[in-house]
Amino acid sequence: MAGGEMERIVLVRHIDGAPTPEDFRVERLSIPELAEGQFLAKNHFVSCDPGTRSRLSPGASYAPPLQPGAPVDGFSVGEVIASRNERFAVGDHVALTGWATHVVSNGRGYAVKLPDLGVPESLWIGLLGVPGMTAWFGLKRVAQLKAGERVLVTSAAGPVGATAGQLAKLWGASQVVGIAGGPDKCQWLRDVGFDVAVDYKAADFEAQFMAAAADGFDVMFDNVGNAMIDRALPHMKMRGRIVVSGQVADYNTPLDRVPGLKNTREFIARRLRMEGLVVFDDLPGFAAAQAELAALIKSGAVQYREEVFKGLASLPEAFCGLFTGASFGRRVVRV
Question: Helices (DSSP H) in the chain: which residue ranges?
C-alpha cells in the first residue's frame, strides 16, 4: 500500500522537569511503500504511560533516551491494513509501539498478533498490556506473594496499582492497603476490594498511614519513588519484599534532587529484598497470563477504569496529566 498520509507525535526538545504539551508536536508524513517483510497497521488506541517520561530527558534509563525530533514510541493497538509479511495478515489485530495514526513494522521488536479473548480492544494496552502484566508478574515472580501476607500498594488508583491490589486479594493476601490521592480514588479502591485506602492528600495522612502500617507489610508494590519506599521501610516485616515498578514522583526530578533512602539499615535488620521490574523480561509468559486475566475481567473479579481521549493531537495533554494527579484510571487515546 502506498499513498495517503499518517500523523505521529515527535519530541520537540529534551524535557527538564514536568512535561508540557509544548514539548511535543504533531508531524504529518506520507505513508511509505512497504518493503518485503513489512506490514502497515492503523492504530485504534494509543496509550499514555508514566514510564515514557524516563526516555524524554538526556540521561539513559532502562531504555535509551529519545532525541529531539524523534517519534515517541508509546504502546498502541490496531489492525493490519496492508501486509508483505507472511506472519501478519490484513485484518489481524496487533499490539505495537508508536504515538501515531499508522505504524509500519517488520514484525520484530514489540509486534504481537492478538487473540480474541472477548474483551474491549483498548485493554490490550491496559490491563492485558504492560500495566496489567507488570502487576501480574510483579506479584508472582518478583514479590513471590504467598497467601496470608499483607500488601502495600502505592499509586494504587492507577492501572498498575489497582490491578496489583485486586490480584493480591484474589491470590490470598490477608490485607491489601492502597495509597492514592483524594477521597474519590480512595473510595473506588475500597469498592474494588482493597481493605484499606490511605489518602496521601489528606491532612491526617501520617496518622492514616501509621494506622494502616501497624501490623507491618510483607510486600510493598511501589510505583511512586524513593520517598514512599523510605517511609515504608521501617514497617516492612521480616523477609519482606519491595517491588520497584515505577517512580512517577521522581521522573520529573533532576537526579541530584531525587530523595535518597535513609532507612537502609532495615534491609539488614529485617532481611529485606528490593527488586526492580521491567516486565518485558516476562514476555514468554504474557499469553497465558493475559488469558487468565481476561477471564477475571469478564467475570468481574478484576475491575478497571479508563479515561478515553479523542484524536492523536490530544495525546500530549493526556500524557502530561499523568504527572499532575489529574488522571484517574488508565489513559488511552482513541486515534
Answer: 130-137, 159-170, 183-191, 205-212, 226-232, 265-269, 286-299, 315-320
Pull the grid cell for residue 333. Answer: 487515546
Q: Which CATH number fits domain 130-280: 3.20.20.70, 3.40.50.720, 3.40.50.300, 3.40.50.1820?
A: 3.40.50.720
Task: Give the separation between CA 243 and CA 179, rounded to whole angstroms.
Answer: 15
Helices (H), 43-182: 130-137, 159-170
Report whether CATH 3.30.70.260 matches the domain 5-123+304-334: no
Is pTM beyond 0.70? Reply is: yes
Distance in angstroms (rounded) separating the CA atoms of residues 36 and 231: 54
What residue type is assigned to position 225 of the chain?
G
* Nearest CA-CA partner of 183 in 205, 201, 210, 159: 201
List, for residues 72-85, the tens digit of each pLDDT value. Answer: 989 999 999 999 99
